[in-house]
Write a structure and sequence with these properties.
Layout lengths: L7 E7 L3 H5 L6 H7 L4 E5 L5 H7 L1 H5 L3 E5 L9 E5 L5 E4 L2 E4 L2 E4 L9 E5 L4 E6 L8 H19 L4 E6 L23 H12 L3 E2 H5 L26 E6 L6 E6 L15 E5 L1
Helix pairs in contact: 5-6
Cofactor: Mg(2+); Mn(2+)
InterPro entries: AP_endonuc_1, Endo/exonu/phosph_ase_sf, Endo/exonuclease/phosphatase, ExoIII-like
Organism: Nocardia otitidiscaviarum
């Protein structure tokens, strides 16, 4: 029986297509699932239907993992999920709000496959995918609206809550290797960075940064182009934002970067945090 004092290990990973990630024989996601110590894994960009996702993860599900999944709203884009070693008490799909005990998804973002929230006995965990955006375009306007909706949900939470995912935002200059070349680009815009600051000011903790203060990275995404991976020229855009007692119980945070470019199974690496 899990209680509030039992250690929990939570990981987050943008899989960059669940079928591609699990299809890399001998070096893919399924092999990682066989060895990870994580209890809960937040997934982003499954890019697959419920049926396709379950088929891709069938060996892991047969081994005892439980899957909660939000299908993409557009074919081949987005899709988020939570894998867990225990069956969750409740699952809510789509950003939204509680209305007299009933979950009401957002009219704009309820079915986009970008947000899922899962209750366990001791903690609620959410997986979120924030799209990249593009400065001074409607895509960027939509990104800000989505962040506002996510922020409202985050501020409504009480108790232990961890929201993990690919935020597509580098908060500070320490979070992007080439920050000077990205000051006018989506992912490092003043409004995006200010949103992260506002969540921290409201009581959320950027767990990985708290455990790795004052250092570049640790990066969690690298372009497939050039030698970005070999040179560790990356971005730290995959965050655990925690609130409640659990935010002070983070003991260790590791970016599980593959030892070589050839052994990676996504352009992101799992970001894994052990909570006391």
């Amino acid at each position: 029986m899990y209680g509030r004092t039992v250690a929990t290990i939570i990981s987050t990973i943008n899989v960059n297509g669940i079928r591609a990630a699990t299809g890399k024989t001998g070096k893919g996601m399924l092999e990682w699932l066989n060895v990870t110590e994580a209890d809960i894994i937040c997934l982003q960009e499954t890019r697959a239907t419920e049926e396709q996702t379950r088929k891709a993860l069938a060996p892991a599900l047969d081994a005892g993992w439980f899957l909660s999944h939000a299908e993409p709203g557009v074919k081949g884009r987005a899709g988020v999920g939570v894998l867990s070693r225990r069956e969750p008490r409740a699952v809510r799909v789509g950003i939204g709000h509680d209305d007299n005990g009933t979950w009401v998804p957002s009219t704009e973002f309820g079915g986009t496959g970008r947000y899922i929230e899962v209750d366990f006995d001791e903690v609620t965990v959410a997986s979120v995918y924030v799209h990249t955006g593009e400065a001074d375009t409607p895509m960027q306007d939509e990104k800000y609206r989505f962040l506002d909706a996510v922020g409202a949900r985050m501020l409504a939470h009480t108790g232990d809550f961890v929201i993990c995912g690919d935020w597509n935002i580098g908060h500070t200059e320490l979070d992007i290797k080439n920050w000077k070349g990205n000051v006018k680009n989506a992912g490092f815009l003043p409004g995006e960075r200010a949103w992260v600051s506002s969540m921290l000011a409201a009581g959320y903790v950027d767990v990985v940064r708290e455990l790795h203060p004052g250092v570049p990275g640790p990066y969690s995404w690298w372009s497939y182009r050039g030698r970005a991976y070999d040179n560790d020229a990356g971005w730290r855009i995959d965050y655990h934002l925690a609130r409640g007692d659990i935010s002070g119980r983070a003991k260790q945070a590791v970016v599980e970067k593959a030892p070589t470019y050839a052994l990676r199974w996504s352009d992101h690496a799992p970001v894994t945090v052990q909570y006391r």
